[in-house]
Structure formats: C-alpha cells, structure tokens
Amino acid sequence: MSGLVRSLNLLRGTLSHQIVPRANISAKPAKHVVTTGEQAFVMVTMFVTVLGPSGWVLAHLEDYKKRQ
C-alpha cells in the first residue's frame, strides 16, 4: 500500500507545479482587414490541400484493391 501512496504523492507534486499559459486577448480591431477574395483563396487552398489527396484515394480505391 505504501508504494501506491508514494506514486500518488509523486503525481500530486508534478500536477501542482504546472504553469498555466496566458491568452493574448485583445479588444482592439485588426491591423489588417482581410478581404473577401483573400478569404476565398485561403478556404479553397485549405480544402484542396486536405480533401484533394483523400478524394484521389477514394476515387481510385478499386484500383488499389486489385493485386497486380
């Protein structure tokens, strides 16, 4: 039982000294206004980057199943 108590004491010691980061929250308006064109470009780029490869694999799934 003393081994369990020692383990719990070790855990309690490490958890009590954690540093909590502060959030950088600002009430000021943005320094640079992002236009609709910039937002659209970034969204299309993100979708193509993430969904492009997965779409390719799903479209060619039957080719990957064949053993040659």
From TrEMBL:
UniProt keyword Membrane, yes or no: yes
One GO-annotated biological process of the protein: mitochondrial electron transport, cytochrome c to oxygen
Membrane topology field: Single-pass membrane protein
InterPro entries documented for this protein: Cyt_c_oxidase_su8, Cyt_c_oxidase_su8_sf
GO cellular component term, pick one: mitochondrial inner membrane
Keywords annotated in UniProt: Membrane, Mitochondrion, Mitochondrion inner membrane, Transit peptide, Transmembrane, Transmembrane helix
Subcellular location: Mitochondrion inner membrane
Residues passing through the membrane, by range: 40-59
Pathway involvement of the protein, from the record: Energy metabolism; oxidative phosphorylation
A Pfam family this chain is assigned to: COX8
Entry superkingdom: Eukaryota
PANTHER family, A to Z: CYTOCHROME C OXIDASE POLYPEPTIDE VIII (PTHR16717), CYTOCHROME C OXIDASE SUBUNIT 8B (PTHR16717:SF6)
Family: Belongs to the cytochrome c oxidase VIII family.
Protein known as: Cytochrome c oxidase subunit 8B
Gene: cox8b
